[in-house]
Amino acid sequence: MDYHISNISKVDRGEVQIKGSKGSYIQWLITREHGAEYAVRKFTLDPKGIIPMHTHKYQETVIITKGKCKVCVGDKVFNLKEGDYIFINSQVKHAILNEEESLEFFCIINYTDDMSIKPLDEDCTSRLP
Questions:
Q1: pLDDT in tens, 50-81
Q2: Which of 16, 97, 125, 129 is 20–30 Å from 23 (CA)?
Q3: Which CATH superfamily does the domain covering 17-102 fall into?
């Protein structure tokens, strides 16, 4: 395919399928099916929504477009807000915890030979101030 044009409102939204996720939704905007070597995804998290600690082989860049959240990466916790972004390398454990308002962010990932996600039995909220 030479190009693809659409609107986010036309893309199916599904629940994030990582064990322990709550109030978190994903839309796959650009994928291999469009001929891309990367994927662009939009996430929406309800107030107090969570994507729990996990790892995967692919790299990702998360760009916050609405709201505020805490991102646990490795053994650190960062507060991110609209306009902030973070790069997370392959196999680095991470989680996203929404605050009081709806959270929206885009996530760009590369395709690897293994796209599986490994949930971790680890609660990063114990590190929160």
A1: 999 999 999 999 999 999 999 999 999 999 99
A2: 129
A3: Jelly Rolls (2.60.120.10)
